Amino acid sequence: MMRRIRTLPRPVTGVRLADAARIYLDTISVSNTRATYAAALDRLVADFGADTDVAVLGSEPDRVSGWFTYVWGAKSAKTFNIRLTALGSAFGYWREQDWLNGDPLMRLRARPAPPDTSKALSRERVAQILRSDVPLRDRVLWHLLYESSARAEEALTLDIPELDAGNRCAVVTRKGGAREVIAWQTGTARLLPRMLAGRKTGPLFLTDRKARPSVAANDVDPSTGRARLSYRRAAELFEEHTAVFDGGPYTLHQLRHSRLTHAAEDGASTPVLMKLSGHTSVRSLAKYARVSDEGLRKFQADSDPAARRRRGH
């Protein structure tokens, strides 16, 4: 069992590590995510000392990375990355509070996950994700990405005037610069007005905080002063919230992949799939339109002659 790391130098900001961990965890409203992140933070507090000043961690990246590698280096890439995400998120919050300078994890990088030949999520798992207890903005984004199969980068660049809410569609700039229509379904349509709350201009998806003075004017909502939500932050939030699922965390891209796979399983034609995905090449579309394991099992069950005979009786 690892011996406790010697207590680091005395406080600089006066914020105890145990208190900082508790305050950060209190900002996480999803119980499963909070429990997952608490596992990493509890180990950090136990090994470095509850009374250690948070500020000192920023000046000890070698010690922190050495400790992290010792504790989780032999674990799977999934566990390693989840713990890294948890601590990285906490450290980011502490920097925002001016309790910490620098990045204690600067020596570490996420590990590549083993190749996944079935990236599409099951319909049940998608439904669970879309029902998650998360802020309204995130629920709208996730519904939109799944229902429209748009790329996250395309959806996040949308401005409110580009929406045609009555026809449940919008024009986005596709990869390569083409302007094309994406369309959504009832899930997005029901949630969208609640998120907009009467806003008529500005970016569709906004950050939780006021924009910095350096942010471009077209990326700021004039009525709230908040900035356009970035892809990096949206991806980070999705991974945080889906880390609690078996097989998680997932990526925003998997929502798009899943929608295309499910549409193919439902019998959508190649032209419809190409329009849905924005691909101009059938070859590029092929990897998304593969039938999932779930779809294969359903096909076999539905086409089983014995099952048809039983239904006939």
Structural class, please? mainly alpha
The CATH topology of the largest domain is given as hpI Integrase, Chain A
Extract low-pLDDT stretches: 8-12
Quaternary state reads single chain
CATH-assigned homologous superfamily of the largest domain: Intergrase catalytic core
Helix content: 40-55%
What does this protein structure show overall?
With 313 residues, the protein is mainly alpha-helical. It folds into 2 domains: 17-96; 123-274, Orthogonal Bundle (hpI Integrase, Chain A), CATH 1.10.443. It has 15 helices and 5 strands. The strands form 2 sheets. A 3-stranded antiparallel β-sheet has the order 1-2-3, with no helix packed on it. A two-stranded antiparallel ribbon has the order 4-5. Strand 2 and strand 3 (179-183) form a beta hairpin. Helix 2 (31-48) packs across helix 5 (77-96) and helix 7 crosses helix 11 (252-265). The chain is globular and about 65 Å long.
Which key features would you list for this structure?
single chain, 313 residues, mainly alpha, hpI Integrase, Chain A, 2 domains, three-stranded antiparallel β-sheet, two-stranded antiparallel sheet, 5 strands
Mind sketching the topology for me?
Blueprint: H1 17-25, H2 31-48, H3 54-57, H4 61-72, H5 77-96, H6 123-130, H7 136-148, H8 152-156, E1 163-164, E2 169-173, E3 179-183, H9 186-196, E4 206-210, E5 226-228, H10 231-242, H11 252-265, H12 270-277, H13 282-286, H14 293-303, H15 305-312
Antiparallel strand pairs: 1-2, 2-3, 4-5
Helix pairs in contact: 1-2, 2-5, 7-9, 7-11, 11-12
